[in-house]
Design a protein that fits this description.
Layout lengths: L5 H12 L2 H14 L3 E6 L2 H16 L4 E5 H7 L8 E7 L5 H13 L2 E6 L5 H4 L3 E4 L8 H13 L6 H7 L3 H23 L5 E5 L4 H13 L6 E5 L17 E5 L5 H14 L3 E5 L17 H20 L15
Helix pairs in contact: 1-9, 2-7, 3-7, 3-10, 4-5, 9-12, 10-12
Length: about 325
């Protein structure tokens, strides 16, 4: 398989998993101090990575949570922010301008912050109450599973946390299996739509962040392909009018509570376009993850599937995923 090193991925997964105890201690400490609400905030794809965890809390926890872009948070603020708030930030580089500025502001206000970064000695870590360096190891969501899962456990809202966290140790290996299962489909998709003029990507629930980030951060930013992302329920309030026989529609189908919303999109798309593709969570083999936990790990698993699309697009189009015209290239 193209650029696939199963052993390396599992090794990196073990390193990411080794952070469990440290992250759980952070969760226990902030919970003991008191949590009035939680703000998830970052920029771009990092904000999208946190969407499933805000969704998880909104649907399963009594602790109020909010998802804001760092720039919006800086510009507008929030009346809900108080001395017992927790602000969770994510920046892979650790130096994203707006995210660092927000951490500095929270530092001045005496608001506790927890930052996830991929490097040592970053400005974001320096200005955060707590910082976790994941070194960019995948699955990148592990830190959030440990942090949010533990907080919810202590709040008597996730009694299965220990079992869930134990099973996560095998998630990287299962993600490798998914990557192998989907690779031929991913290659066919990349070959077929490598030069598509326009495509529509649809998702819902805890896969909405994945849908949004893949269309924006991979297809648009990394491959310069014009893409529209829309949630499954919102698809029928505007975007579906652009569906024609030759318009590619891609659905990331959840197996969680919002699956009926995805199925409605699938039923419509199969009638009105000949270019419909779906990546269905129910089709992926996860031998070590209990059925009840499968919806929670959807973002990580779908990333493993879509990563295969990304690598094939990069190869077929001879367009490196790191190539940019403007991002961190020019002043803006």
């Amino acid at each position: 398989m193209l650029k696939f090193d199963a052993e390396k991925f599992v090794t990196e997964g073990e390193k990411a998993y080794s952070l469990r105890a440290d992250i759980e201690q952070i969760a226990l400490k902030v919970q003991k101090e008191g949590i009035s609400n939680i703000f998830f905030t970052a920029s771009g794809g990092s904000n999208a990575v946190m969407q499933p965890f805000n969704y998880w809390m909104e649907s399963k926890s009594s602790i109020p949570s909010y998802l804001l872009t760092a720039a919006d948070f800086l510009a507008v603020g929030s009346k809900k922010l108080n001395k017992n708030s927790i602000v969770i930030l994510l920046s892979k580089s650790g130096d994203t301008k707006e995210t660092v500025a927000l951490a500095k502001k929270m530092e001045q206000l005496g608001i506790r912050t927890i930052s996830i970064v991929n490097k040592d000695n970053t400005p974001l870590a320096h200005h955060s109450t707590y910082a976790v360096n994941t070194f960019g190891y995948h699955p990148q969501e592990l830190a959030f599973y440990f942090l949010i899962g533990k907080i919810m456990q202590v709040n008597n809202e996730f009694n299965d946390y220990e079992q869930f966290a134990d099973e996560l140790k095998s998630l990287p290996g299962d993600m490798n299996i998914v990557a192998q299962e989907v690779d031929s489909k991913a290659k066919e998709f990349a070959e077929k739509y490598q030069n598509a003029d326009y495509q529509i990507w649809v998702g819902s629930g805890d896969l909405w962040g994945t849908t949004y980030s893949y269309s924006m951060c991979v297809l648009e930013e990394s491959q310069w392909l014009r893409t529209k992302s829309v949630s499954s329920p919102e698809f029928f309030h505007g975007t579906f009018e652009l569906v024609e026989k030759d318009v590619p529609v891609v659905l990331l189908e959840s197996e969680g509570a919002t699956r009926p919303l995805d199925e409605r999109v699938a039923n419509f798309a199969t009638k009105y376009t000949d270019q419909f593709t779906k990546f269905d969570m129910k089709e992926f083999t996860l031998s070590h993850i209990s059925t009840k936990f499968r919806p929670i790990v959807e973002p990580s698993v779908m990333w493993a599937a879509l990563r295969r699309v990304s690598l094939h697009l990069e190869d077929i189009r001879d367009h490196p995923l790191t190539k940019r015209r403007y991002y961190r290239v020019v002043d803006y």
